[in-house]
Amino acid sequence: MPQLDKLIARLESGVASAIVLESDSPIALQTGMGLQQFSSQVLSVSQVLALISEVADADVRPSIQSGRDIRFTYQFNGKPWLVQQDKDASGVRIEVRAWSERDNGAETPKPLNTAPRGVASVTPTAAPATPAVAPLAESSRSVPRRADDAPIAAAAEQSDARSALDALLRIQVSRGAADLHLRVGEPPIFRLGGDLVRLEGEAPLTPEGLEAMLRSIMPVKNQGEYEELWDTDFAYEIEGLSRFRVNVLRDRYGIAAVMRTIASTTVTVEQMGISPEVQALCNLTKGLVLVTGPTGSGKSTTLCALVDLINRTRSDHLITIEDPIEFVHQSKKCLITQRQVGVHTQSFKSALRAALREDPDIILVGELRDLETIAIAMETAETGHLVFGTLHTSTAASTINRIVDQFPADRQEQIRIMLSESLKAVVSQVLCRKIGGGRVAAREILIVNKAVSALIREGKTVQIPNIIQTQRKLGMETLNDALLNLVKTKQVEPEEAYNKAVEKKDMAMKLKAIGHNITSAGLDE
């Protein structure tokens, strides 16, 4: 259902006489008491145009896309409604109100067809001879207490499509599934214990049904992003159940999505089995701490546990910069400020620069995506702030190499010096299938001391694994040793540990030493 339908219903009831959609302003209703704000979200030009494009005929959309001379009628519940641009406004301002004869100086415009409730029928007044553009996405509604921007129909009743999606998400949480995969032509698929499992008894999803489900929860901002980029990320919450990180994409069959479960409550370092040495990093007053690993390795959950520890033990201002916000932290001893890229700030780097003027003690950067963000993070760590960040690297040594390689060759020596002084620790982790179900993290831990700092400065990162091996008393541990310990404690099968290892030959030898032989094919690999 187009979003304007829900607002026009208010005009029909006599609550308001016009809807006002204006760029750089929230949606407003013209009432007897003047202009009344309807939503808290400030609309962009593209969002204003997207809202009216939903109800416009294809012949009208080119003029809407141009943002000029917008005027047409929309048939709703058998009545014509005038959608008209205010040409005197400084930005894009659209008013929607009941059509009357004085608007045309003639009889009521004849609709193009007889449309049932919620289906548009428009009579264009004028349209420039430009190519037609694809219709923009249908907007959506939200649920209470979302971390991202609320769509315009936050107060509307839940649709059947959203109820159907919520039912799937409840199954996901009840079964302990990490992810829900939604694809056209497939039934809902859950990731359980690392495996993909199809939901029995469910029919394959149709293009129309899946699109309705996903658009029912997609914020307005993400509607435009999806139409432009064909990918978008946002967070969704079912109050009292869980939060979900949502990625919507397109594949060859149409719209698709992956929805990851995020616990509604924060996890603790005790629940995560995080070592005392890693916990001690939360006591630092400055420096850079990196949590790394492949996608889906639990980096966000580990950072959540560290933030929770800081929140319980320190009295500081902690700023998080995320895309999207996943775990929601309530301020305890600390003051917690959580910002989402694309909603509360334009980018990681702009938010990181701005954070320095916001009296922070600790900053968490959800992802060090580019050269400039990495550079600012290191400078911030050097100037007396504790900075946590993530990278998609598999070992401590590869993490350092990845950071240095981001920079031009003529700057790499300077970056090594900066990194040797600012980097305090690297925690690289992978998730392994646990015997009996569930998953457990294996972590490589590098604590930067004088020896490690010298190796970074001199570009001898290849020697870092040897340092980790010989400095176990400081809490350091290689990934292979962490995996081996999981095998020894019968948490993980030997084959799973071998598959998750980066140095596979060394891992096979360690497993053989404790009585587990890996096939020759594995050794050859």
The rounded distance between the terminal residues' Cα atoms is 54 Å
Structural class computed from helices and strand pairing:
alpha+beta
Total domain units = 4
Enumerate the spans where pLDDT stays under 50 for 5 or more consecutive residues: 106-158, 520-525
Could you characterize the architecture of this molecule?
The chain has 525 residues and is of the alpha+beta class. It folds into four domains: 3-124, 2-Layer Sandwich (Beta-Lactamase); 160-262, Beta-Lactamase; 269-477, Rossmann fold; 480-525, no CATH class. Helix content is 33%, strand content 23%. It has helices spanning 3-13, 45-53, 61-66, 160-174, 207-215, 220-229, 269-272, 276-279, 299-313, 348-355, 371-382, 396-405, 409-422, 450-458, 464-470, 479-488, 494-500, 504-513, 520-524; strands spanning 18-22, 28-31, 34-37, 71-76, 79-85, 93-98, 122-124, 179-182, 189-192, 195-198, 231-238, 242-251, 254-262, 287-292, 317-322, 335-340, 362-365, 386-391, 423-433, 439-447. The strands form three sheets. A seven-stranded antiparallel beta sheet has the order 3-2-1-6-5-4-7. Helix 10 (348-355) runs parallel beside helix 11, helix 12 packs across helix 13 and helix 13 (409-422) runs antiparallel to helix 14 (450-458). The longest helix is centred in the N-terminal third of the chain and has 15 residues, at 160-174. The two termini are 54 Å apart. The model is unreliable at 106-158 and 520-525 (pLDDT under 50).
Task: Give a concise summary.
The chain has 525 residues and is of the alpha+beta class.
